Amino acid sequence: MTQPIRVTVWGEYRHELRDENVARIYPDGMHTTIADGIRENLGDRATIRTATLDEPEHGLTEEVLAETDVLTWWGHMAHGEVSDDVVERVHRHVLSGMGLVVLHSGHWSKIFQKLMGTTCTLRWRSEQDRELVWTVNPTHPIARGIPHPIDIPAQEMYGEFFDIPAPDELVFVSSFSGGEVFRSGCTFRRGHGKIFFFSPGDQDYPVYHHPDVRRVIANGVEWSVSDLPERAYPTLLRYDTDEFFHGVDYSQAAPDITPASMTTTAGVTA
Amino acid sequence: MTQPIRVTVWGEYRHELRDENVARIYPDGMHTTIADGIRENLGDRATIRTATLDEPEHGLTEEVLAETDVLTWWGHMAHGEVSDDVVERVHRHVLSGMGLVVLHSGHWSKIFQKLMGTTCTLRWRSEQDRELVWTVNPTHPIARGIPHPIDIPAQEMYGEFFDIPAPDELVFVSSFSGGEVFRSGCTFRRGHGKIFFFSPGDQDYPVYHHPDVRRVIANGVEWSVSDLPERAYPTLLRYDTDEFFHGVDYSQAAPDITPASMTTTAGVTA
Amino acid sequence: MTQPIRVTVWGEYRHELRDENVARIYPDGMHTTIADGIRENLGDRATIRTATLDEPEHGLTEEVLAETDVLTWWGHMAHGEVSDDVVERVHRHVLSGMGLVVLHSGHWSKIFQKLMGTTCTLRWRSEQDRELVWTVNPTHPIARGIPHPIDIPAQEMYGEFFDIPAPDELVFVSSFSGGEVFRSGCTFRRGHGKIFFFSPGDQDYPVYHHPDVRRVIANGVEWSVSDLPERAYPTLLRYDTDEFFHGVDYSQAAPDITPASMTTTAGVTA
Amino acid sequence: MTQPIRVTVWGEYRHELRDENVARIYPDGMHTTIADGIRENLGDRATIRTATLDEPEHGLTEEVLAETDVLTWWGHMAHGEVSDDVVERVHRHVLSGMGLVVLHSGHWSKIFQKLMGTTCTLRWRSEQDRELVWTVNPTHPIARGIPHPIDIPAQEMYGEFFDIPAPDELVFVSSFSGGEVFRSGCTFRRGHGKIFFFSPGDQDYPVYHHPDVRRVIANGVEWSVSDLPERAYPTLLRYDTDEFFHGVDYSQAAPDITPASMTTTAGVTA
């Protein structure tokens, strides 16, 4: 409780180096702006580092993830360049208890698709729509202190059908001036990890400078911290009758079981 | 409505050929017994075929899946031998609208893990526990005509924590004589597909001869039929302002987007 | 399955007799138009009667409810005139397995409040907003055959926060031209009864003549039919050890228990 | 955050004065033991008072409730004696943001029935069953620090079907030595209030002395504290176009609307 939350803000950091308009809005990179917004809201309650696609291992080494309580994810034009090994590593950490906050176009990232099991597709349009973000779950901690609605003057439109599993909790629903709606704030629990998806945010609009958007992201970071004392990957174990607390891992030894996990990326790594 | 449901019952079909005990319980293969149970309950409302691991493409070619309204899945000792290409194909069909009924040890199959996004691990023990299956959602169609509880005299124990996403609907919860509990009947919607997981059933016990278990599986088959008129994979499309019905697929063409789907199996295939 | 669904369409039937504008849109009463819409879609699959506030017992006698598979409810200006006894009776029938489809301003009816346990309040405005109804659960039977979105040219605005429990299933979300959003299609299970709330529809706009709205209501009627073989009110029963199927009702006899139900309307009637 | 949680522990306090066995287990009343358990776990993070049935207004005056962040409720033999006015008052405070933790036989209290909208009935037997409480949602704050399972050597059996709405979050599922199962830890959000139901606990067994049970109740108290800055009853308001933040209450003034709330207890009190 008294330890600050260790946050890693991950950014693709490509548009900012290539597109003049984006560089003007986010001169130090979107990840820096997102990190500033979290810092602004959480102060001493968080320590924040950033990582980007073009660092070795995208800046997401085993060491970095082991020291990360909550990872935030923004990517857009280069989802396909994220290495499958790193995706596997992030996935394992989330299922073991690392929090994950997925932002905007991160909906189409490999890690979000892998955690959701669906395509995570949607309808879109980038034509300066006004987005209004309405709270439908006012007692949720992520909605704490958020105006109803949040008013974002110009935004990319994201509309339904959004191909995700029904969220565990629906917190925000957005409308756009073109008439579309979107489930813009959703929580999911996967394994021992808590996941928050929040759709406002784009490289072409100054959304990550919006104080309410920053507040929501900071709330999402706080909410997604695990209550488990340590990271633990869910494991298949055999328990004797009357023995509830100490299980045995026979899955590797058993001569007649080849678990899916032994040949696919979904399983336990050695 | 008047067309019969086209069901494909998939079975691993290895234990039956190798283990005397299993061969005695399921002399024609577990898939045959499962198919019989569906036929017994649905009669003319279903046409049923079977497919097994050692057939070419595991019997699950594009043609077979295209003609399958609901696929049932039982596997155990050879999850790892199921080809990733076939898993990909089944995943695409489920997201496009094919129903999927996952049985017992199928919890650890590649396809279930891929759809859930989690490890799908649990606790287990095969020591002749008695399993009682209680209905917690009595208005659910899958519970229609099912005694409360179902009494299974001898069974493998599957216990919590079962690492799955919170189900959309929890229909059954089981207890075991050793004291464990398990969320044994769960529904999920993914993409345009409906998924039912039902845990009773094992190669070492005659569970698929149990009339109530057969009835649940048949109910699950009926429930998981899609209401969509045709199979459709969810796709990312751009919609102009005031144009709600005709979207355009820019994802392949856009010079500045490399979607995750272009390099991973989660995406749209050409 | 082959028996037609017995539907009772309940209408307040006051605006139509008092307000010229409403009488022009619904010359035979809104209940008649709603009934026509169900008939148009279900044909022989339903037999439909209507009942209105000013009939004796509001037309909802014990006999009528006992012969009703699904009740639809529209009220607005006279919620307070609905007798508590009739509300109690409808509540008991819903918990015993009668389906209920609550329409538009029925959100503020006594019966809906009683089933939800909340205020069921919302924000509103009647200024000719355009309402677009988007499907967020495309595999739900209530969404079958419904365009995405439904386009309603002029409507009363209903906006969030809508004070209801989180729905079991969220099927539709609406936007309004003023920018508000609303969870406009929601399902709930209560006791042995299935409930569908659908918000489009108003006395001042011809919404119940809209073919897509009529289709949704008809789908909702079909969905909310119980799968239970007969109506049964959930009851508190004692079960001996090893006796799972025959319980005993000690609640009335026990000298040391005064159940809430003995003095309130929520309990078992003799 | 730094303010301690103001908890009111409500107890029926009748069995303890009448039944020798209960008096022996809970010599100072069950409410005192429950309060001790919360104090033991939350320490300075909570200030705790108690209230009982036979105090004026059951100890739950407007003043007490206004100063209560979380109310815990245990009742059994005298549910029917709780005044409807007090139930109404508690209901209003819960919908306005007061947390509520309902314990064991409180499942059949008027306040829980009113909030759920259902009968809240179940199956039961008091024959020294062993209860095992399993965590099915390990990332939920209420499960923090709780062993998996909690082992309660002797308990009253509560079994399914438990007639409640599907919980927002299912945290615990119990088994009993007789083979029954029960959804023993459930959360619900109603209005602006958070509700936690936890079934272990009985007058005839020393369950409220069990350290793990005490920990769960304390966790539940912490979880159910509202994040809203002040208590606010959800209200029906009209909003002009382009006016999102200031609504007007026309419900009392409008000549053509008699809201349900004007004649029933569910509505806004003046």
Write the layout of secondary structure elements.
Four copies of one chain form a homotetramer.
Chain A: E1 5-11, H1 15-18, H2 20-25, H3 30-42, E2 46-52, H4 62-66, E3 70-74, H5 84-96, E4 99-103, H6 110-116, E5 123-135, E6 150-159, E7 169-176, E8 181-190, E9 193-198, H7 211-223, E10 237-238
Parallel strand pairs in A: 1-2, 1-3, 3-4, 4-9
Antiparallel strand pairs in A: 5-6, 5-7, 7-8, 8-9
User: In which range does the helix fraction of chain A lie?
Assistant: 10-25%
* Number of DSSP helical runs of chain A: 7
How do the SSEs of chain A run, as a string of H and E? EHHHEHEHEHEEEEEHE
Chain pair sharing the greatest interface: A-B, 65 and 65 residues
Features:
270 residues, homotetramer, alpha/beta, 10 strands, 27% strand, 23% helix, 9-stranded mixed sheet
Give a brief outline of the structure:
Chain A is an alpha/beta fold and 270 residues long.
Written account of the structure:
4 copies of one chain form a homotetramer. The two termini of chain A are 32 Å apart. Helices cover 23% and strands 27% of the residues of chain A. Chain A has a 9-stranded mixed sheet. Chain A has 7 helices and 10 strands. Chain A is of the alpha/beta class and 270 residues long. In chain A, helix 3 (30-42) crosses helix 7 and helix 5 crosses helix 6 (110-116). Mean pLDDT of chain A is 93; it is low at 261-270. At the A-B interface, helix 6, strand 5, strand 8 and strand 10 of A face helix 6, strand 5, strand 8 and strand 10 of B. Strand 5 (123-135) of chain C pairs parallel with strand 10 (237-238) of chain D, so a sheet runs across the interface.
